[in-house]
Design goal:
This protein is an all-alpha fold. The chain is built from 15 helices and 2 strands. It is globular and about 55 Å long. About 45% of the residues are buried. This is ABC transporter permease.
Length: about 350
């Protein structure tokens, strides 16, 4: 009798595991559902909108937002918030251009120095939050302001050096049969590396535990502060890479070109289903969040919607997704023990 009853039990177990996975992925499903709906609306509302190459080109042109959003997502998963992303992107633009001085031979040097500067800013953020116990909003806002003032003093409002021609040409470069933009490939590559760290390593498992319940993780022997610092360092590095990508795309350094990216990265992460409480959400949601913002903006611009109205629509979408995700997270926690 027991031998006959065993298979249904195993099948039920697999069914229960599938149900739990779907419950954990509801925020992702909603985010990607909205992104798909906007993609269809974009294809209908714009001439040639169904062409894969055009869609990939638009995503590639916004790769800098996607890369920066990866860092912001990691910080939010740790229970923090990074409001220094925009200034770090501007810093990377200023520093890399000053190092390159418009020469291809200095590209590697410029990129390395910019990434190191971004990582250093992230380290300061992490230490202030984890060691000095300053709230993330205040710590990163203060650090971002200091960074902003620093590069304004250094440049006197006029960035030095210049973007190397080789880096500028990368903005238009395409791979895989001249269809996929190179920056889109870089965005996906950064996502794969960070996803591997989060979901295929012990560091990632402990990181999620520290973000979801810092005290419980600490009582279990997890050095929570190390993971918090690591999250901010990773965010700084991602912001620096994003700043370099933005500089390559615009073709010139800027002290204010990335000012709007800080809040956009927060919006992308939240739309993607990441909770401000920490430990809830998936890195894949950041891609959906960026896609939603990009396609929504493109649609509104194609329809010649006034910029003020665009802000209203984007804000309404953000609030709507926050309410939906909050409800889904509440239901998920309510059914956890069932």
């Amino acid at each position: 009798m027991s031998a006959v009853q065993a298979p249904p039990a195993a099948s039920g177990s697999r069914g229960e595991q599938l149900r739990r996975r779907l419950l954990r992925s509801r925020e992702l499903l909603v985010s990607y559902g909205l992104a798909l709906a906007l993609l269809i609306a974009f294809a209908v509302a714009t001439p040639g909108g169904w062409e894969p190459q055009r869609i990939l080109t638009i995503l590639g042109q916004n790769a800098q937002l996607g890369i920066a959003a990866i860092g912001q997502t990691v910080v939010l998963l740790s229970g923090g918030l990074d409001l220094s992303i925009g200034p770090v992107m501007n810093l990377a633009s200023v520093v890399s251009s000053a190092q390159m001085r418009g020469q291809d031979g200095n590209i590697a040097q410029g990129i390395a120095v910019a990434i190191a500067a971004g990582g250093l800013v992230g380290l300061v953020n992490g230490l202030l939050v984890s060691r000095a116990k300053i709230p993330p909003l205040l710590a990163t806002l203060a650090v971002g302001t200091i960074v902003q003032g620093g590069y304004y003093v250094y440049t006197e409002g006029q960035p030095k050096g210049g973007v190397a021609p080789g880096l500028q040409s990368a903005a238009d470069a395409k791979v895989l049969g001249s269809i996929v933009p190179w920056w889109l490939v870089l965005w996906i590559a950064v996502w794969i590396v960070v996803a591997f760290l989060l979901y295929r390593t012990t560091w990632g498992r402990r990181f999620y535990a520290a973000g979801a319940s810092p005290r419980a993780a600490w009582l279990s022997g997890v050095a929570v502060s190390r993971y918090v610092v690591g999250a901010y360092v990773l965010s700084g590095i991602c912001a620096a890479i994003a700043g370099i990508a933005l500089t390559a795309y615009t073709g010139s350094p800027s002290v204010s070109g990335a000012d709007s990216y800080t809040l956009q990265t927060v919006a992308a992460a939240v739309i993607g289903g990441v909770a401000f409480s920490g430990g809830i959400g998936r890195l894949a949601g950041a891609f959906a969040g960026v896609a939603v913002l990009v396609f929504l903006t493109t649609i509104l611009e194609t329809l010649n919607v006034d910029s003020a109205v665009q802000y209203v629509v984007q804000g309404a979408v953000l609030i709507g997704m926050m309410l939906v995700n909050r409800r889904l997270i509440g239901r998920g926690s309510g059914s956890a023990g069932r």
